[in-house]
Amino acid sequence: MIEQFRRSFAVAKKDMLIFYLKGPVVIMGLIFPFFLFLAFLIGRNLGGEQLFVGLTAMTAFFTSTAVGPTIIPWECRGRTFERLITAPVSLTTVLLGDLQASFYFGLAISFLISLSAAVYLSVHPNPLIFLTATLLAIGCFSAMTILMSSYPPTDVPADVMMLSSLLKFSLLFVSGIFVPLERLPAYGRAISFLSPLTYYVDALRHSTGRGYLPLWVDFGMLILFGIAFFLTGVSIHRKVLERRFT
Known about the structure:
mainly alpha; 11 helices; elongated
């Protein structure tokens, strides 16, 4: 078990060295959330806590999902995925390494941005709630990238980026960032509960004041979503593995 984790960490290190300076990562992981936050901010009279929650949630969501969906297609196009599969590592270990790369990148950028925002906005979130929520959320979002990259089995990163962007924007706009859960109609809240980002946003609101759902529900759902994303993604990857090499 320890040896497999060490091998997955080697895969994660390779991913971070090769893929995290590519243009799509910088655009989707850093520049795009910044301008999306400006659109959220301009013309609205928002308090520091709401701005902090919105900026932190969008940063964590987009940075941790920026490159994960495209790693496998890039690997397939460069014919390096075949060598990984034939190496003494399992497919699960390879995917766990991809997950770790997304996790470390998302965690580093999210903490940097959120701490800077907290100082600038004079917001003092509960450190234990904030830390726990952010770790669980970035782990969940990183696991979601494993599912995003599982289908279609293509070596064209743009195909996966198109589908993953559609999914990410759908989850973003129903998550309660722009309209708080308590102000949504009943059907809107029902839809928002399908987004894992909803639970992270609510947990962040707990850290700065009071959330809508019980905190244990937010944490529990992030864990359940993360496990479901990873296990489902691994299962689909196994089913389409042979099609990636044809």
